[in-house]
Amino acid sequence: MKLIYVSPEYSGSVVEGQVYKLLDYYLSKGWFNEIVLLQSYNSYDKFLETKQVLKNHNFQYKLFYSKPWNPFKVFKTKRELSDLLNNEINECDFIVHTRTTIMAFHACYALEYIKKPLNVLADERGAIFYELKYKAKKTNNIIYKIKSWLQYSFFLYCYRTVRLNNIQISTVSFSMKELLVKNKFLGSNISVHPNIASDIFVYNEELRYNTREKLGISKNESLVILSSGEGGLWQNDIETIDILLKQNVKILNLSKKEINKQGVINLFIPHNEMPYYLSAADVAILWRENEVLNNVACPSKFGEFVVMGLYVIHNKTVDIATKYIKENHAGLLVDEADEIRVNNDALYYQLERQRRIESGRKIFSVEEIAKSYYKKYISIYCD
Question: How many CB atoms within 10 Å of residue 137?
Fold first, then answer.
């Protein structure tokens, strides 16, 4: 069986961790006769950036220009994707895995055009309709609001098409599955696959020692990590800073948004260096707004935290994180920032770190999620 993965434009560590590392794992296991990534880009700069990143991976890939979110570019995307799929598919022994339902819409359009079966699994990774509403609510720009409304209408059309074609859907949480079915965005043929913590996320004692020495953190000091990456509007880790600083712990802020306060170390690092700093840390903060798009999400950072055995402090806004922490005794759940308590002795968090690592890997490791995806591919192919 041939796996064809269709991805929207490269967007940093999320695509690197959720798509490229998954394909790397498949390649290492030899489960497929052939693997090819069809990776879109929307500008020349993005083309160059994507090509540079893909040099670090061994699977086959082809880049194509498209703007899948733009309703006025549907026919161009269809033509580009149809040509690529027509060249890649010689028989019916294939699966097309798409990142996002919007890309599944384009893939279905292209497959019907070249008269191939709709062997498609669509990954619905976020509450896109609520994200549009959220961003529109946060701005007074009328043009932006109109564009958001046009996109919303286009997305509804895409989702309806995917639903009518009875395409199999994968999503990141049971909460998101319930939301999609309840609001009739998609049908009930939805499986759940949390976001992946790739195989580079392995706790390492030597990395811990060397990285803490580099950061100037002593053996017994507790290090708290905040990692909001690109700094999404709904990520509110910064609300916890003053409370943490009062408890005399060291804070490592891995974000493009610097926090200029004494006691905070600011770094923005490439995705492949994250395991160094997660090994060095003891506690991680996951702090989000209480919005629907967070409630149903599965932040990729959360999976990375738990497979590295970090003690996670969370404000009960992400359902999958709240449930996991409670059931696995993997951290502290609070309602307000002033309820946060951190033990100043790093040894306190190290004692049960291995237990937390083993619990996390059972749910969020690339090994477990890749196996689950593979079973889904087989069921789609056999149908």
Answer: 10
Q: What is the CA radius of gyration of the chain?
A: 21
Identical topology for domains 2-197+366-382 and 205-364: yes
Task: Return the CATH superfamily for domain 205-364.
Answer: Glycogen Phosphorylase B; (3.40.50.2000)
The answer to whether residue 85 scores a pLDDT higher than 80 is yes
Please determine, for residue 232, whether its predicted confidence score (pLDDT) is greater than 60.
no
Which tokens hold the place of 85?
Answer: 């799929």
- Burial class (CB within 10 angstroms; exposed 0-12, middle 13-18, buried 19+) of 289: middle
Q: Give the helix, strand, coil percentages of the chain, each rounded to 5.
A: 50, 20, 30
- On the question of pLDDT at 292 being above 60, the answer is yes
CA distance 22 to 127: 22
Q: Which has the closest alpha carbon to 225: 161, 294, 184, 276?
A: 276
Residue 193 identity (one-letter amino acid): H
Q: How far is CA 8 from CA 48, 149, 266, 280, in A?
A: 15, 21, 30, 33
Q: 233 phi and psi, to 5 degrees?
A: -55, -30
Topology given in CATH for the domain delimited by 2-197+366-382: Rossmann fold (3.40.50)
Is the per-residue pLDDT at 229 higher than 60? no
The predicted-structure confidence for 90-121, as pLDDT tens digits, reads as follows 887 899 999 999 999 999 999 999 999 999 99
The predicted pLDDT at position 75 comes to 85
Non-local CB neighbours of 69 within 8 Å, separated by 6+ positions? 8, 102, 151, 154
Cβ contact 192:136 at 8 Å: no
137 against 273, higher pLDDT: 273
DSSP code per residue over 253-264: EEESS---STTE
Q: Where are the domains of the chain?
A: 2-197+366-382, 205-364
